[in-house]
Amino acid sequence: MRCVNNGTCEFKGQMFDNWSEIPTNLTGCDQHCYCESGNVECRPACPPVLALPPPTLPCHPAQARLVPIPEDECCKHWACVQPADGDKDIGPIVNNEQPNKTKENTVGEEEDAAGVFYPTFDGKPVKEKGEKEKPSKKPGKGQLDINDIKY
Questions:
Q1: Which residue of 12, 63, 78, 113 could cross-link 53, Cys pair, CB 3.0 to 4.6 Å?
Q2: Proportion of the chain above pLDDT 70, given as a percent
Q3: Which domain holds residue 35?
């Protein structure tokens, strides 16, 4: 006499019926497992989450937090969250300056550029159209020095 496999699965010492879901308290939040034809099949439980908040959020990135997805105890997503009154780690979130307006300095006042990031190759601010780089004292390729010319 031969026994026919009815599709049940064993997972961590417990038996599960074919096509049944394995509880999260056994699998953890990392994976979603179920019994399929005698085999335990597992897939990632949550969609991947970016390391930084997406630019499509309707708030400043400093207000974005990873929070649990509603109706899901495991998965998280980026959402806009208002800071708690006593939360000092976030710092000022409100920006009162109008976007797309240039800030004018008064005479003798200098802008504080500490901590400013410029998305250029060298990390320096972009040169204005009228600005030119200072001439180098060393001759570059193709340039002749006055001492190189022989008469």
A1: 78
A2: 51
A3: 1-45
Higher pLDDT, 129 or 37: 37
Residues 21 and 38 placed together within one structural domain of the fold: yes
> Do 33 and 65 sit in the same domain of this protein?
no
Work out the mean pLDDT of the chain and round it to a whole number: 72
CA 67, CA 89: separation in Å to the nearest integer?
17
Q: Has residue 27 been placed in a domain?
A: yes
Radius of gyration of the chain (CA): 31
β-pairing, 31-36 vs 39-44, is antiparallel
Tokens encoding 6: 């009815």
Structure tokens of 88?
């000092």
Asked if residue 41 belongs to a domain, the reply is: yes
What's the predicted TM-score (pTM) here? 0.43
CA distances for 107 relative to 17, 102, 103, 104, 129, angstroms: 79, 16, 13, 10, 22
End-to-end CA distance of the chain: 111
Domain match, 40 and 2 both: yes
SS3 of residue 79 by DSSP: strand
